[in-house]
Amino acid sequence: METGLEDWIGGFAVTAGDGLDAFVAELNAQNDTFNAILASALADRLAEALAERMHERVRVELWGYAKDERLDNEGRIAEDYRGIRPAPGYPACPDHTEKRTLFDLLDAERIGIELTESFAMHPASSVSGLYFSHPESRYFQVGRIGADQVEDYARRKRRPLEEMERWLAPWLAYDPVRTAAPR
Description:
This protein has 183 residues and is mainly alpha-helical. It has six helices and four strands, in the order E-H-H-H-H-E-E-E-H-H.
């Protein structure tokens, strides 16, 4: 159905950089745990703030679908804006392996973010995900996933079933050791 509305999706990756990681390591080496925790928290908040600022720029300037948006800090915290920014590995898209797809599309390594073999980001104070502009976009949590769903997902991703069961283990509605999915 034609609605006349434009709909956008985009990817992003931002980082506070590895300078703060080095500073945190230095503090830890000095057994200054308190300041190491504070510096680490500051780096995490900086990366999140950058992701939020970029999301605002996308809404207001770059894509411009919310040109008249004027939110105060409380409005930003309450996410009183159009669109969402879900991230792989979180409840709305629990498969961490999708970070590889996103990083390949964005060439995220060029800004100094790397993925570990478990798909954690390094530097740790980094944020990546997707921007959805649709006015009805809402966050949701994926419920328990059945064996038939995991089998279908593994087939569509062209990945071994056992691998996908391992990545999706917290969301499985079955025990893959005791309940073999149809092959």
